[in-house]
Amino acid sequence: MTDSFSRHKINPGWIEVIVGCMFSGKTEELIKQLHRAQYARRSLQVFKPLIDNRYSENDVASHKQTTFPSEPVKDSVEILRQVKRTTDIVGIDEAQFFDDGLIDVVESLANAGKRVIVAGLDTDWRGEPFGCMPQIMAKAEVIHKQYAICVVCGEPATRTQRLVSNNSEILVGSTESYEARCRQHFDPELSLRLGALETSKDLPTSP
Ligand code: TMP
Ligand code: MG
Description:
This protein is α/β, with parallel strands linked by helices. 25% of the residues lie in helices and 24% in strands. It has a domain at 5-146: Rossmann fold, CATH 3.40.50. The chain has helices at residues 26-39, 76-82, 101-111, 133-139, 190-202; strands spanning 14-20, 44-49, 59-61, 67-69, 71-73, 89-92, 115-121, 142-145, 148-149, 156-157, 159-162, 178-181. The chain is elongated and about 70 Å long.
C-alpha cells in the first residue's frame, strides 16, 4: 500500500471496480473477493438489479454457475435503503444495469466507511461506455480489468459481440446472444446487418 492509502486506517471506505467484457470472469472475481471477506468475518451485503434473472432470481451467478446470495433491487436508491449500518462490505453485480444514481450511492457508501465492490460491463454491444460504469470507474480507488478470450483468434478479448439482431441497450442473455472478441474481430455493425437481413427476408418478392 502506498501513502495515498494511509487514510484507510481511519476510514476503511473505498470503491473497487471489476470490469471487462462478457465471459471475462467479473462475477467469479466478485465472488472470490466476497469469500475472502467472509473468511475474515467481515459483514457483507450483496446486491444485483432485479432485471438480472439469467441464472438465478436471488443469487449473484457466474457463467460457470458459481453463486453467492444477494438481494435483488429495483434501483440504486433501494441499495442505500437496504444497507445496514453494521455492514462492512457492499458488493454490487451487473452494475451497468443500474440508473445513474448508483454513482452517488457508491460514493456515499464509501464515504460512510464501507468497502464497495462493483462489478459490471465497461462497454456495451456497440463498444461504447455502458451506463454509469465510466463514472464509477473514475471515482474508484481500485480497478480490476478482466479479459476474456476472443472466440475468433484466441487473443485477449475486451469487447462483447452481440450475435442477434437487436438494437436495445439492454438485452439480458448469455452465449446464445453474445461472445467475447478482441478489438480486431469485434464487429459492432453485425447486429444491425442481421436486422437488415431479416427485414429484407420479410419483404414480398416481386412477381
Ligand atoms: P455478464 O457480464 O455478467 O456476462 O452479463 C452481462 C449482461 O449484460 C448479460 O445479461 C447481457 C447484458 N448485455 C446488455 O444488456 N447489453 C449489452 O450491450 C451487452 C454487451 C450485454
Ligand atoms: Mg456476470
